[in-house]
Structures are given as C-alpha cells and as structure tokens.
Amino acid sequence: MQSSFDDLAFLPQLNTSGTFPKDNGECHSLDSPQSARSADEEENLLGGASSRQLPPPQLPPRVLPKVEEMPKANHKPKYPRISKPVEVLKYEYDVVVIGSGYGGAVAASRMARGRQSVCVLELGKERWPGEYPETIKEAGRELHLSGDFSTKDAGPVPIETGDPTSLYHLILGNGQNAFVANGLGGTSLLNANVFLEADEKTMAMEDWPPEIREDPGCLRKYYDRARFMLQPQVYPDSFPTLDKVEVLKQQAEVLGCSDKFRKVEQTTWFEEDGLNNCGVEMKQSKLTGMDSTGVNDGSKMSTLVNYLADAWNWGAEIFTRCEVRYIRKHKKEGYLIFFAWHGAKRDKFKKALYNDLMWIHAKKMVFFGAGALGTTEILLRSKDLGPIEMSDSVGQNMSGNGDLLAFGYNLNRSVNGLARTNPSPPRPVGPTITSIIDCRDAPKALDGYVIEEGVIPEPLSPFMQFMLEMIPGRIKPAGLSPLARLYKVLASMRSRFGGHYNPRGSLERTQTYLIMCHDDNQAVLTLKNGRPNLSFRGVGRTDHVRNLNEKLRKATEALDGTFVNNPFYLLNSEQEITVHPIGGAFMSRNGEASDGVTNDKGQILKGYGKDYYPGLVVVDASLIPTALGANPFATITALAERSVELVAKEYGIEIDYHTRNSKLNFEKPPENPIFRRIQSISREEESVLSAIRDNKEGIEFSEIMSGYVHMSHEATDFELSEQIASGQCEKARFFLSVHAYDIQNLLFNAEHKARLTGTFTSGALDESPYMVIGGNFQLFTIDDRTPDTKNLVYDFDMRGTDGRIIHFHGYKTLDDTAAFNILGAWRATTTLRVTLSDPPREGEKKGRIIGKGILYIKPWNLIAELKTFYASMHSGMRFISYFARNLAHAFFAPLTDLEWPVVASRAWSARNKASHTFKIEAEDGVMSRMMMWDPLSTKTQHMELLFIPGASVDEKIFTVPDIEHNTIEYFRRKGYRCFCLIHRVGKDDNAKVGYTTYDARLDIAAAIDKIEELRQSSKYGRLSSKTYIVAHCAGSVALSSGLLSGDIATSSIAGITASQVFMTPMFARYDRWKATIPFATMAYELLTRTDWYDCTSEPTDSFLQLGLNQLLRFYPLAREDLCSSVVCHRSSFIFGLLWSHQNLNNRTHNNLHDYIGGITMKCQRHLIAMGNARQVLGSNGEKNLVTDANFEKLRGIPILFLSGDKNSVYDPENTMVSYDMLRDKLDERDYHRELLEDFGHLDTWMSEQTVEKVCPLVDNHLKEVVKRMKARRINGFANGGGQANGTA
C-alpha cells in the first residue's frame, strides 16, 4: 500500500496538511462552489423533503495548459488507501455492506453517519487516479472473462480466465454479454459519468411497486441528495468546442430531433482544482475521454471520492478483494456473510479458495450492493446454501437496460472520438459522453430511448480500424462521388499507416453511438454446477431495435459515413453487450413474493406473502424491475438513498445528513470514529497500519495444511491422537495467509513474528469454519524446551460461527534430526503438531486441552504455496537467505560452528540458595560440602532427604534454575528438609586429586553422621530419626559400596532411591565398547600428559584440545541427540551421552558448563573396571563387594530403583539385575523398580518433566517408607526387623 502522493504536473502533491501547493510553493485550499450555498439550500439538498434542483455552478473560463506541461503517461500518482488489510478485520459489525458501487457506497456512508459499525466488502481492488490502465497491455492484465461462450453452430462452452478481482469483467451470456467493473467504487470507476434521472413515465409503469409508481416524484429529494454528493455538472460553454458533440448535434438535426439535443449532466469535475462536498481534493478534468477505462487525471466523481470517502471518515471499515459467496442466518442474531478472500494470492489454491470461506457477522443488517449480477448470484447461492427462503423470482426479470452500441465510421468531418492520455489542450477529446438526444417523451414509455455520443477507449484504438472495416454487415453510404470515395480511401490509409490518432484519418472521423432503450426484461441468471449462467432474450432481435439501428444508419449516412453495428454483436453470434445490467432481485409490483424479490424498500421477501427480512436490504441495480431507457446510476443512487433512510427508521437509527466533512487527510485517522462494542485488536491493527504508512518492506504467502485432529479432553500424544482421529474421520485443515509487514522485524526481532489470517476447519467441530484474524506466526524461533531446536510456530485464537473461541497452537520442529537427511528436512518443515484448547479461565495460564493431532503440507499444496510467495526482490532474497541458512544449519548440523561455554559464569538463581552450608570431614580427613534447604511448607514432614549427585556434578542437577520447578523445590514444597552432598568426585576441587567413587563412600558416611549430629542438637528444628537418600549414578555406586562394605551405617537410613545404577553397573552399548578397549582414554592421557579430563573447553585451549573438540563432532549419536555444544560433546566422550536432548531445555543445554566439571583418569579407570566387572569394586578394583554376606547389610532398607529407558551411560538392565538379586536374597517387598519412559541419564533430574514424572515416584516411595516406620514403631524399625508394606 502507498502512503504518499507523487508530484505530477497536472496532479500536484498533497502535503501533510492536506493542501496542494500553489505555483509559487505556498499552500492553499480551494473550496468547491457548492460550499458557498446558503444554509437553506444545503438543508434542502441534504435532508429536505421538497428541495428544488439547483442550477449548475458558473465556472471560470477554461485555462488551457501548455502542451509541454502535460504529464508523461507512465508518471503515476500514488494515493493513501481508505481500505484496510483483511488482517485487521473484526469478527462482527452492526452492518455489513456487500459491494461499493453507488448503492453499496450510499449504504456505507449513511449507516456510518447513523453511528453503526460498518464493514464494506468489495471484490475488486482499491485504485486511485494514476493507477488505471492506459495501454492494451495494461488493460489486458486487468480483464476477467467468465460465462458461456456460444456460437450459432455449437452449444455454450464454459469459460473462466483472468483474476476475478480485475478491474474489467466481461460476462458472456446467451443473447447478450455484460461488461462491469470490479474495484472500490464499483461501476462508478468505469461508467461514462452521465447523471440522468429516469422519466416519470418509466417510473409510473406497472412494474414498480405502488409506493413509487403512484408517486413518481417520490424520488425527488433522493435525487437531490445524490446530486449533492455526486455533484454532476454540464460541460461548460467556456471550454473548447468538442467535435463529437457538434457531430451529434448535426445528426440530431438530420433525425428531426434538434429540440431533443442537449449537453448532459455528468459527474466530471470541470471546475478548478478544489474540494468536493465530501472534503476530497479533486482535479480539473483534462478531457481525455478515458472515463470508461479509468481516468487518471483525478476528475472523476466516482463513489470512491464521495460516498466511500465519507463512509471512511465516519468510521466505516473497508476491505477489498473479498468475494462474498453467500449468507446465512446467525444462530443468535443477524447474519453470517461468507466470502472468499483473494489476497495473498490465495487463488493459487483454486479449489480451497471457494471451499474454505472466511466469514463475518452482521449483527443487524446486510446491504447488497454488488451489482445486478453480483447480488443476484449471492442471493441464488444463499437460497441453496444458507438456506435462506426467498422468492422464486430471484434471478428473473433481468435486463440489459436496452443498451445498444454502434459506430459511424469514416464520416466526412472530424469527430475526435479516440480517448487518449494526453490530448492536445486546444483540441481535447472531452468526457466519454458529453451530449445526448433525449427521445423519452414518446407516447409510450417503452418507445422512449436516448442516443449518446461516446469515445473509443485508448486500449482498443489500435484494433478498431480492423474491426470496423472487416466485420460483415457494414452499411456503406450510397451515392458517393468518385472523389468522395477517394477521400474515404485516403482517410483509411492515413489511419492505417499514419497512426490511429492521425487527425485526418478514418478513426478520428468515427462517431461512437450509445443507445439506452427498453428491452423485454426477459433475462435470467441461474446457477449451473455452482457457476452463474446468464441468458438474455429479446435483445438485438426486436423490431424496436431494428428501428433504432435504422435511425443510426440514417444519421451516419447523412455525414457520408459507414454504419457498423456493434462489432461484438457480429463477432459473438449476434449478441449485444450491455454495461448496465439491472434486475434479478427486483421490487415486487404488489409487495408480495409471488411478484418480486424485494419490497419497495429493497428488503428481501421471505418467499411467501409480504413477510420480509428487515435486515437484508438490496440497494443496487438488481432492485430495478424494468429497463429505464436512460443511464441508470442516478436512479440507483436515489433508490438506495430512499431504501437506507426507510430501513434506518425501522431500526430507530438517526442518520446525520447535515454535518459537513472538513478536508480529508487519509494519512490520519477518521474524524468521526465509531466506538464499537466488539472485540478490539487496536494495538495489532496499529502496528500493521504503521508499517503500511512507513512503506516497510514485507513478505506474504499462503499455506494449506491438512491432517487429523482428535477432539478429546484426554488427548496427550500427537501421534496417537492422529491415529484415533484418522479412524474416526476427524479430518482437519487450515488455509492461512502469512503476512509480515516488516521484513526487518520478521528476520531480526527475537520473536520473528508475522500475522496469520484465514480459516480452520474440522469435521469434529460443528462451528466450522473457524475464523483466524490477527494470529501469530513465528519463523524459526528458538525452542527453549529443547537444545539446538528451532520452531515454526502457529499460535492464535480462532472463532467459530457461533462465537465459540478455541486456542490453536501448532509447531513445526527443525532440529538436528534433519542432519544429512532430506526426508527428515521435509518432515521438519511440513509437519505441524497441533494442540487445541479452550481459552484459560480467570487465574489460569492455560486452558483445558480439547484436541490434538498432526497436520501436513501435501506436495501439491507446497507447489501452490510457492506460487503465492510475494515480496520485493530485496526482501524476498533476504527471506529466502534466512530460511535457507536455518535449514542448512540443521541439515549440516555436525559441520556447523561449535558452541563454546560462556567464559564468565552466570550468577546462580537466588531461588536455589541453600539455607545453610556445612563443611564435612570424612574419616580420611578429606573435606567436602553439604547444603541444607529448609522446608517451604508449614506442614513439615518428619523425614530428611539427602541427595547424592554423581561424578563431575554437584547440587545444581537438583536445583536447576532454568526450569519452572526443580527437584529440591518440589520436595521443599512437600515439607521436606533437603540436604545435598558434594562429594570428592563431584564438581569439586577434590575431584582433581585422583579419588575414586569407592573413596567417596566416606563422604557419604560423614554426611549421614552430620545429619545425625544435627538431629541430636535440634538447632535447626525437629528432625526425624532416619534419613531418606536419593543417590544418582556414581553417587549411587559410592552409596552401595559403602553399604556393602559396612563403612556406611544402615541404622540411620530410612530408604533409598537409586537413580540409574546401584551395585551392578553395566555399561550401555557405546560405553561398553569403550570400556572393553579403552583406547580413547588411554590416548588422551598419553597425548595430553595429564590425569585430568575437563568436560569444558574454550577456544583458547591447546591445539590437542581443540582438535579433540573437532573430532567429537562425529561421536556416534542418534540424530535426535546431535548438537553443537562443546561441553555436551566432551562429556559424551568420557561418560557417554548424559541426557536425552528432548528433555533438556535450551537454556540448560547452553549452560552445561555450570553443571558438568571433569574427572581424573584414575577415577575413570575405576568406573571402567566396575562396568567391565558388572559389580561395585574396591578402590583398586581388587575387592569384590557384591557377596551374599554383604547383602545382609542391606536388609530392611526399602530401595526404589530408577532407570531411564534411553540411558546411554548405564544399560537400564543394570538396575533390574540389582533389583532381582536383592529380591532373591532378601525380602522382595522391600524393592521396587521403575523404568522411566523417554528419559536418559542426567535428564532424569534436570528436565521440565522431572517434577511431573520422577519426583512423584520418589514421593510415593517416601510415603510408603513413612507408613512403614509408623507401623513398625520407630525404635523397632531401627534394628532392621519387620516387613515392608510395599510390593515389588
């Protein structure tokens, strides 16, 4: 969209104050002469019941511009838009107006002035002067051809070509064709501007309802209202004489109709530049004759610059490229209007465009102003699909308004009837129609007609000579002398070889005739296979038409010209063409549905009697029951003014006809905004409009995804839900358009947001289709849930036709599973996991889930999607480059840049700060740390928890700050006092000394003793008599070693959770291979000449360390666990993969250096020895601790074994072996084992899912232990006797 005016020689730039600069650079404002009317005159024009017609204003003498001042044809002005992008459409309005021609524009203006929220839906685009086609190439791109092509010898053949939103629409019918305009302003953009009131004889015909035919003058005040808004003027006498007018005047004398010849009023701005009555700046006409193809000089008084501009200023919201298909009743109030949105190249999905319709809710009224053909088609489809009961007469009684077209070729005098962009100022072409022979005073109304001169449009000029000379049926003048015939031949040659604008050529001597008369009103519009089928009868075949053609022949022959009937008539099976189709939803002559479609106010009858729908109102040409024998738009406008006024009274709406607009500035908000009682999206709307105003570069495309979504509150898994939905035929699909108005924000803002607009449809949802307005699309956002993962996110609230709101959240995942995997990359970018939920209730963060499933992009839809991509070359290349970089990063994941740890460690979260920290001395004198956290619950549990981390880690694995709730917080909230020991092989300075996990047993014994000491002192409150231990990995191995060796007393231990391993370590596959032949660790120790292996590394490390970092890119891992983290690579090398990446969020993964330290080769060799032996060993590997005698030391201690089923360090079977051993040797009821689905090793305690899936298992085991302690009486339980209540 454009937001500024360009400077033109004939169209000065509009500055920010809304004024045009004078020649000397000063700014001034010119009011139109009408603004000087007296208050009484204005009162009559706007609202008076008996106003008089005012004479046309006196115009100043025509000032001819110099030839060199004329603008170049390719210099086009740019205007701001009064329409809004569909992305800011609201779900409901008081009033919806369909179409923006004369009737629709009247309804929009008046309802907005009645302070109703108004939405205008227009099929065509918004164009301002400077944007209309001028060449045949430009015009060809703006032609939409549809209908049935017929010949004499063959039946009709359906044809459809061109963009439905194109400016020109040629409808091929049976008997007559129709030419209409699409665009904001409708037919007013392309008509010949003739403002001609219908004669009273025609209005008194029996076809009209009694309210009109019995009072033909009832339209007077409405004509005057139209006259005030449209400001018709007669071509001034002070302007240059027009040849075509003089020719028609001479022909009127030939026909004996001199008294019926006159210049006709038309809506062309002949005055000096200034404001029209609606506050819009108008430019003086350059008399180009281009009115019927779109005039670019700013002088055409189309509805765009009056009624529609007025509607905009009073708060109406206007949307273009919206093709209304049908309407139906809303369940509660008003009507639903279903439309196909042609924006974002959605028509590339040809089938979906009309299947997946968008909708809008009109709470009170719908005004039909889509033209005779458009409105009738909508009503016919509404009867079938609404269904809305209507009269059987819908589509009947249509007329071409008696339109006839013909030419007087190669006359004996100049006509100057070829439109041109830059006519010579002394010899202009003039308006398309300037004068008329008005023969409507015939005794019978049906015999009346008008003859008007016309202009051949510039795009057609190059072809006209061929058509006029080669078409059969031409009638040449009789009795010409040889010299006269020679002159004719020379004139023809001048046009052919000297150009069609040759002033002495045959084309410049050609008069264009336009006739409006009365036809038989027998045309019919029906729907055939869902497509409109137009059939005219009685045009081009009647005696009346032959009589009119004879008059034209006579007038032509009098000037020695060749009479040529409509070339299109002769070329297309003798079919006429009309630019004024009327009828189809015509007024009933008696107010009953048996004789018409609407009542006298345009309200649609229900199909029986006089009952009608008060909120369904027709206001366009389809309302007219008979041919008018005159240009119809003045009457259409008057009838619309009448209908809107009368319907407004029924609803108690007071229309403000009197308040005048000041000069309109379309770059600012309207002067009279409407305060609506509907959902506001003002912030998002302002961001869109701001980007448009600032002319930001953006991109847009449309997308269809389809699949299955299972509607169930119990839906948890995407794949399972998809499977169930497939079996139950719960198909789902969305048709969304993505629009980023600012490419800079899309690519570089952290949220990477664009807007989503469209529909979602599901067979399981009765309220489908759901409308999506203002949804969020996020392009390659970092997935905080998983490392090295980016998502394409679709997130929006959507509204069903009954008003129900459902939240849609979907995401495509692009991660390292796509590495060197074409199929994986395809799946990543075309698979969307979908969650549907109700809106959250008050106090809730998320609503209740109501459905899950998966949607896919089909290959053929992807091809169509690529065709919809639209962007400037610059922004398009930036987008494609960004998309390709992200895709390549995933595809070539092992080769991408390594991610190094942050040099300066971040400040640890205050929420994890320990209540107390204790120094503990083991019996061998080694000092370690133990932290304590007080309970957070007032209901304190009488049990202490001691957490023992594994090798190279510390308390942080239980106090992860990067997840919402961590393990320590979980148990503190449960009322437990928590301790955590950082032993000598953990993430501690002692770890570099060379201790083993067997040595760490002494630290655990000292920690248990310290807790016992605290229990005795009561310094920190009342403690229980026993401690429950949660030990992980090497910490669990050290615990089992101490228990089996007797170095850890069992009397103070209430129970144990052994995480991943206990007394029978068994390596997983890769670690087993490494342990069998420990070449890698031996080589590392040999090459680096150090016993210490650090899991962290920096870019400044030695070449050996950096080389190792590069080699570790290719450490064998599953695709889903590939990443670029140096810490992750190095820890996997020494320990095995420590986590399932899907369970670590991105922030945790980015800060692994905070969690992982290092290990000595001595400790590593000890771990390898135990793994190879599959049992815990002494410090030097010679002492076997797993014996029957040692098992007795474990008797009476309940143990919960936990293993992740994806553990890549220790085979999950290792805990099963320990579990089976103890059950066989001791009381089987003391032991329980859980296999944790989708968990690896460390992620058991570091994942978002830990508090949901792991902690509850430990908590339940704790509760069983407490129950057992209470049942056995604490003192007795301390001696190791009794039976456990739990079962294995």
Describe the protein's architecture and organization.
28% of the residues lie in helices and 20% in strands. Strands 3, 4, 5, 13, 14, 15, 16, 25 and 26 form a nine-stranded mixed beta sheet that branches. Strands 27-28-29-30-31-32-33-34 form an eight-stranded antiparallel beta barrel, surrounded by four helices. The protein is elongated and about 135 Å long. The two termini are 71 Å apart. It is of the alpha+beta class and 1288 residues long. The relative contact order is 0.08. Keywords: Cholesterol metabolism, FAD, Flavoprotein, Isomerase, Lipid metabolism, Oxidoreductase, Steroid metabolism, Sterol metabolism. Belongs to the GMC oxidoreductase family. Its EC number is 1.1.3.6, 5.3.3.1. Pathway: Steroid metabolism; cholesterol degradation.
How would you concisely characterize the structure shown here?
By secondary structure, the chain is α+β, with helices and mostly antiparallel strands. It is 28% helix and 20% strand.
